């Protein structure tokens, strides 16, 4: 679920999605004004600015990211958090696993759609049976491909395979 603050994602919708998520993961690309709406989501994927805004913390290091991720998880009442940190990579926080995922992008042309690519790749990988860590690593590679293209872009299976 990608929230664009356009009125489609509401507490009622998220509650309905959470209620049916038992058989499938609910991954949310959030907007901070709706943070309380995401309670029960499998994974929420704030970018650096969203994580800083939600937690009122500057995130400049892995230690900062760890602290912010724990706080974000508690505030959002979600199972897991993946903070996308641009050139600093990602920070994954879950009850079973936690850690930094280094960025893999070689050249950045345009970050348009990178968050959507991360969320879509996470959902696909989790639905296919990947662990959260493997799904996050795959999403990191997919985002690295997308930011190397101009404008909204997609990633093919061949591109993803080649990048890994």
The amount of beta strand, in percent, is: 5-15%
Q: CATH superfamily assignment?
A: Ribokinase
Shape, principal axes of CA atoms: globular
State mean pLDDT (0 to 100 scale).
92
The total of helices stands at: 6
Tally of domains: 1
**Count of DSSP E strands?**
5
Q: Please identify the structural class as seen in this structure.
A: alpha/beta
User: What is the CA-atom radius of gyration, in angstroms?
Assistant: 15 Å
Architecture, CATH level 2? 3-Layer(aba) Sandwich
Annotated CATH topology:
UDP-N-acetylmuramoyl-L-alanine:D-glutamate ligase
H/E series? HEEHHEEEHHH
Oligomer: single chain
Report low-confidence residues grouped into runs of 5 or more: none
Q: In what order do the strands lie side by side in the largest sheet?
A: 1-2-3-4-5
Largest sheet: number of strands, sense, barrel closure: 5 strands, mixed
What share of the residues lie within helices? Answer: 40-55%
What is the rounded distance between the termini?
26 Å
Q: What would CATH call the class?
A: Alpha Beta
Would you kindly provide a written description of the structure presented here, covering whatever features stand out?
The protein is α/β, with parallel strands linked by helices. It has a single domain, classed as Ribokinase (UDP-N-acetylmuramoyl-L-alanine:D-glutamate ligase, 3-Layer(aba) Sandwich), CATH 3.40.1190.20. It contains six helices and five strands. The protein has a five-stranded mixed sheet, sandwiched between helices. A hairpin with a 5-residue loop joins strand 3 (80-84) and strand 4. The longest helix has 15 residues, at 62-76. The protein starts with 10 loop residues before the first helix and ends with a helix. The mean pLDDT is 92.
